Structure formats: C-alpha cells, structure tokens
Amino acid sequence: MRYSAFRILKEALSGHKGWTPAWRDPEPQASYDYVIVGGGGHGLATAHYLSKVFGKARIAVLEKGWIGGGNVGRNTTIVRSNYLLPGNEAFYELSMKLWEGLEQDLNYNAMVSQRGIMNLIHTDGQRDAYRRRGNSMILHGSDAELLTAKQVRKEAPFLNFDNARFPIKGALVHRRGGTVRHDAVAWGYARSADQHGVDIIQNCEVTGFRIENGAIKGVETSRGFIGATKVGVSVAGSSGKVMSYADMRLPIESHVLQAFVSEGLKPIIPGVITFGAGHFYVSQSDKGGLVFGGDIDGYNSYAQRGNLPVVEDVCEGGMALMPMIGRARLLRMWGGIMDMSMDGSPIIDKTSVDGLYFNGGWCYGGFKATPASGYVFAHLLAKDVPHETAAAMRFDRFEKGLVIDEKGVGAQPNLH
Question: Would you state the pLDDT for residue 178?
Fold first, then answer.
C-alpha cells in the first residue's frame, strides 16, 4: 500500500477499513543470504538499501525486542552534518542528503524538519575553532554561516546575553540541519524493507554465532538456529556483548545517555541550539515539549535509564543558557545505551570471520547517521569493499594510529 493524500481521503470516507499492517510478522526461515542483527534504525536502513538499492534478496532483520524500542526511539532527534575532520564530514554530508530525500524514498512521513542548528560561541578561541569547522564544512559540500552576537540576539532573543561568565559572542549556524521524528524513521524503514521482501523478525534474540573453519554459517537465536551466508551486526550499545559470541573484544564501551522532554509549551525555540560552554542541546518538538540532553553518565551500563547527577548537570546547562525555562516542568526522561568508541567515531568493517561484518561505535552520532550508516553498511555487505565515505572507519585505524578524533580528547570513551 502506498500512502498519499488520495488514500487518506478514501479511507476517511470508507471508515478507515482498508488500512493494512505497516509490515508483516513472519516466522523465521531456516536460512537467508543476509541476516542483519539489530532492528534499530541502522539495521533497518541497511536492510532497506540492501534490498532496494543493491537488489539483494533473502534478507532478515533480527530484533531481540520490538521495532523502535532501542536507541532509535531514545534520542533527541537531531540531524546534522557540521563535522570538521575529512573522515567524518563527507560521511555525514551523505547522510544529510539522504535525510533530505528520505520521505520520498520511503513513501512515509518521517517529519524531516530542516529548522537549522545554532552552535553558540562563548570565547574568542571558540570562534576561531568554529570558523575553521565552518570552512571545512563548506569545502566538503555542506553549509555553514558565522553569526555575530547581534545576529544571534535577533534570531534567539530569549537567550541569556547578560551572563558575564558565559558571554554569547556569536554562533556557527548549519541551516540544513534540524530534527526528524525518531519513531517514524524506524517505522518508515521497516515498512519499506518489508515491501522489498525483507523478513523483520521481532522478539528474536541472537544468543550465538555458528562459525566453522573461520567462516560464518548462521546465528543461534531464542527462536532456533538461522543459517546465513553473511551476517551484519548493528546493535549499538550491545555491540560488545553480541560480538563476544564470536570471541571478539571490541574497542568500545557501553554508557547511558539520557534525554529529556518538558511539558508542552507555545513555540519559543525556532531550531536546535547548543550551549558552547557546556554540553547542552535543545530543540522543541511539534507537540511543544522542549527536547534536550547533555553528557553521558560516566559509568558503564546496559540499563536504559540514567541517574540524577546527570539530570542536575543538564538542567544547570539549560538554566545558564536560557533561565526562562526554569519554571517549565520536566515531563519525562529516558536513556539509550551508547556504544562509545576509543576515538568517538564509528566502525564499519569486515571482521576476521569470513562473512561476519560489524557496524557500531556511534557514540552520540548514531541517529543523525542512520541513512548513511545503512547505505554504506549495505554497500559493504553487497560488494565486500568499503564505501568511499566510510573508508576511514576501519578496525585497524587504532593499530595504525589513524584515529578520527573529532573532539580531540584521545582514547577516552567517557569523555566523548
């Protein structure tokens, strides 16, 4: 079924009796050519592009829970391509372009809103760094604009311009950035993958790999053994646990990242705003709630919930940026499990096991990377060679010293 204005009108006049499920709920087959472990945004996007773009068939996505129950539904919905380093910028610009055509590609309303991102500047040194970042973005085909304090005040007069400790001296603006409805991304990719013949199997936890003579033969699951010629693992914060079934120890740690939503308010924030003197970022949803977040919790965890010290730290950042939100009530909060790599950048590569591939280490950048991650991972699975924009995202970069250290904090996942 294709969605359209005509279809909505037809169903409205016929009592909405013609709608069908967005995707099937099939029983797993005995074997597949491709098995994608992880039914989050990246796994579903991989299945979509593998089937639609690369023309592959006999594909299954295995999800231990339900579609949309992991990090893809537990984030602050921000999409952007305002990166500095060559190993990142070309990749995220590819993702931005895919976001811009996503709704037409999926025939699904993902609520893509390119409302712009404003990164605030608070020191002269930060202005120099952002000028450099903006130039790099433009050279890689993205967009960037450096604003003065007066221009920032005109666009966001509600910010705290009188704070001597954190003076607002300007901003780097990425106009094409914005937000996308996170749940709709999962549902749209799942629906499209299903329409292209992919089996989406929920409540099917992978409990092991069957490896013979150095080659993958399939996966052991809570619903029995499923044979596979190629297996792609894309499970975010569970990467270390799942890859341990193949006796692999990854350069990744799992941490909790909390996100928050306030009560619904009238429109006040035009786009996405980030606090340059601390880790705080905020936007406003179509329902009116302020959606915001900050740093990860500092300890390793597999829990989808956070702790109160980080709540306090995030709210302090918000109050320093715009004290007007002090009277807004916090409506809800949740946590996602972040797969924090040693340099803060992802890994998309083959493993030492023939037919076993890995996609992870996304740190904070997982949601915004969803389309490009799925596209380049599908490219790797289909052609056995890395996509040009992901050529630097290899396992061996840590051994060779070719790290992609975007934040410049070294091998410290807790600081990324």
Answer: 98
